[in-house]
C-alpha cells in the first residue's frame, strides 16, 4: 500500500532558506579564512624588505676620498667583525613570544586561539626585523643584538600586546579601559615601532657605537632601496589588514579594509611629495624620498581605518616633515646611521602616529571598530575627544617608560655580570698613509683613548682621526629603516 507524504509550502520554503543560509555561512567563513591568511602573508613581506636593506652594504664596497687628508692615502678598507647569524634572534624571539601567546590565547579565547597566536607572532617578528636592521650584528656594550631581540619578544612585547590589544587597560573594548574609552593604536605604531625604537634609543644613550663605523656611510643602490621600501610598505599594510580581520566586527570588516588601503595609500603619497621636495631642493639624497614614505606609513598605522582620507594624508605629510627636521639634528647625525634612522623612523614617527590617532579619529570609525558611540579625536566635536587624546598620551608615556626600564635593566645586569664589556670593538681598518703602514687597528665606542694597534699608532692617530671625520662628513646618508 503506497504512502503519500504531503509537504507544506511553508516547509519547503524553510528548508530552502536553511540551505541558502548554510551555503552563505560557508562561503563567508571561507572568504574570511582566505582574507586572514592573505593578510598574514603580506605581514611577512615586512621582514623581506628589512632583509634587503640589511644585506645592501655587502653589495657595494666602501670608497673613501683622499682629498685634503694630508699624506697620500694608498689604500683603505674596513674589516668588520663577523656578525652573529641573523636568524639567531628570530629563533629565540619566536620561541619566547610564541609560547607566551599560545598559552594566553588558548586560555582567554580558545575559539580564535590559532589565528590570534599566528597574528601576534608575526607582529613580534616585525619588531625583531627592526632591531636586526638597526643593530647590523653589532654588540650593545658587550650585549649581542640577539639578546635584546629575545628580551623584547619574551618580556617587553607580551605586556604591550596585552595592554592595548587584548584585555589590558588601554584596550577600548576592555571592561577596565583607562578613562572608560582606552587608547587607540590600531596598526601598532606604538606597540611595534615605538617599542623597537625605544630599545635602540636607550642602547644608543648607554654608549652604543656612534659615528666611527666605516660601513655606515655606504651609498645604496636606487633599485634595491626602492624594492626594500615597497616590501616594507606592503608589510605594514598587511599588519593593518590582518588587524581588521582579527579585531573588527564582521559587519564592518569590508569598509574597514577599504579605509585602511585608502588611508595608507594617501599617507604614503603625502610623504613621497615631501621626500621629493627634500631631495630636489635641499639634500639631493634619493633615499630621503623612500624614508619619508616609510615614515608616513609608520605614523598612519596607528590611525588605520579610524580617520578620513584627507586626515590620513595630513598625518603622512606631517610625519615626513618631522622626519626631515629630525634627521638634521646634531645628535641623530652623530649616532651610527642605522641606529639613527631606526630612532627617527620608528620611535619618533611611531610616537607621532599614536598622538595623531587621538586627534583625527572620527566618531564613525570608533563605532565601527570599537563599538564606541561618542568617541572621537580632538579635531571633531564629541564629548570624549580630549579624554581620548589624554589616554593616547598616557599610553605612549607608559609604553616608552616600560620599554626603557626593561632595556636599561637588561644592559645593566649583563654589564655587572661581565665587567670586561665596557668597550665594544666596532671594526678594524687596514690602511697605508704615506710611509706608514699598519693593520688591525681597533676602534672602541666608549673611549677613544683606549685603542690597540701596532707600535706606530701614536704617530698615525691624528691622521686617522682626520680621515674618520672627513669620511663621516662626506658620506651620503643611508636609508636604513
From TrEMBL:
Species for this entry: Aphanomyces euteiches
Keywords noted in UniProt: Membrane, Transmembrane, Transmembrane helix
Keyword Transmembrane: yes
Membrane-protein topology: Multi-pass membrane protein
One GO location term (cellular component): plasma membrane
Primary localization: membrane
Membrane-spanning ranges: 34-52, 87-108, 120-137, 143-165, 177-206, 226-246, 258-277, 309-332, 339-360, 393-414
Domain Ammonium transporter AmtB-like stretches: 115-413
Top-level lineage group: Eukaryota
Keyword match Transmembrane helix: yes
Lineage: Eukaryota, Sar, Stramenopiles, Oomycota, Saprolegniomycetes
Protein name as catalogued: Ammonium transporter AmtB-like domain-containing protein
Amino acid at each position: 500500500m503506497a504512502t503519500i507524504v504531503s509537504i507544506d509550502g511553508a516547509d519547503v520554503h524553510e528548508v530552502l532558506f536553511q540551505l541558502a543560509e548554510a551555503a552563505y555561512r560557508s562561503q563567508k567563513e571561507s572568504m574570511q579564512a582566505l582574507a586572514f591568511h592573505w593578510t598574514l602573508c603580506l605581514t611577512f613581506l615586512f621582514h623581506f624588505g628589512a632583509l634587503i636593506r640589511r644585506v645592501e652594504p655587502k653589495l657595494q664596497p666602501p670608497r673613501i676620498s683622499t682629498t685634503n687628508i694630508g699624506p697620500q692615502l694608498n689604500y683603505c678598507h674596513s674589516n668588520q667583525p663577523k656578525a652573529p647569524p641573523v636568524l639567531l634572534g628570530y629563533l629565540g624571539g619566536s620561541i619566547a613570544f610564541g609560547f607566551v601567546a599560545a598559552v594566553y590565547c588558548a586560555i582567554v579565547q580558545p575559539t580564535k586561539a590559532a589565528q590570534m597566536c599566528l597574528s601576534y607572532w608575526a607582529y613580534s617578528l616585525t619588531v625583531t626585523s627592526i632591531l636586526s636592521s638597526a643593530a647590523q650584528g653589532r654588540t650593545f656594550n658587550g650585549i649581542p643584538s640577539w639578546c635584546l631581540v629575545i628580551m623584547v619578544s619574551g618580556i617587553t612585547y607580551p605586556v604591550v600586546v596585552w595592554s592595548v590589544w587584548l584585555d589590558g587597560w588601554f584596550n577600548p573594548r576592555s571592561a577596565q579601559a583607562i578613562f572608560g574609552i582606552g587608547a587607540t593604536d590600531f596598526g601598532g605604531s606604538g606597540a611595534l615601532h615605538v617599542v623597537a625604537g625605544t630599545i635602540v634609543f636607550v642602547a644608543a644613550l648607554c654608549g652604543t657605537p656612534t659615528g666611527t663605523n666605516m660601513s655606515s656611510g655606504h651609498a645604496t643602490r636606487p633599485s634595491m632601496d626602492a624594492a626594500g621600501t615597497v616590501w616594507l610598505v606592503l608589510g605594514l599594510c598587511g599588519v593593518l589588514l590582518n588587524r581588521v580581520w582579527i579585531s573588527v566586527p564582521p559587519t564592518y570588516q569590508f569598509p574597514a579594509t577599504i579605509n585602511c588601503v585608502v588611508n595608507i595609500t594617501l599617507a604614503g603619497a603625502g610623504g613621497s611629495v615631501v621626500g621629493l621636495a627634500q631631495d630636489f631642493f635641499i639634500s639631493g639624497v634619493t633615499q630621503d624620498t623612500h624614508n619619508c614614505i616609510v615614515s608616513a606609513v609608520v605614523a598612519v598605522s596607528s590611525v588605520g581605518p579610524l580617520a578620513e582620507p584627507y586626515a590620513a594624508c595630513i598625518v603622512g605629510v606631517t610625519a615626513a616633515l618631522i622626519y626631515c627636521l629630525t634627521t638634521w639634528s646634531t645628535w641623530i647625525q652623530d649616532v651610527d646611521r642605522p641606529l639613527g634612522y631606526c630612532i627617527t623612523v620608528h620611535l619618533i614617527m611611531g610616537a607621532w602616529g599614536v598622538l595623531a590617532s587621538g586627534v583625527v579619529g572620527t566618531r564613525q570609525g570608533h563605532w565601527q571598530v570599537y563599538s564606541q558611540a561618542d568617541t572621537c579625536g580632538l579635531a571633531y566635536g564629541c564629548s570624549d575627544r580630549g579624554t581620548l587624546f589624554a589616554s593616547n598620551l598616557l599610553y605612549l608615556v607608559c609604553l616608552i617608560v616600560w620599554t626603557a626600564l626593561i632595556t636599561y635593566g637588561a644592559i645593566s645586569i649583563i654589564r655587572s655580570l661581565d665587567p670586561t664589556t665596557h668597550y665594544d670593538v666596532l671594526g678594524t681598518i687596514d690602511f697605508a698613509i704615506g710611509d706608514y703602514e699598519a693593520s688591525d687597528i681597533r676602534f672602541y665606542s666608549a673611549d677613544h683613548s683606549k685603542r690597540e694597534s701596532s707600535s706606530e699608532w701614536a704617530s698615525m692617530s691624528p691622521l686617522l682621526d682626520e680621515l674618520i671625520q672627513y669620511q663621516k662628513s662626506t658620506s651620503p646618508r643611508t636609508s636604513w629603516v
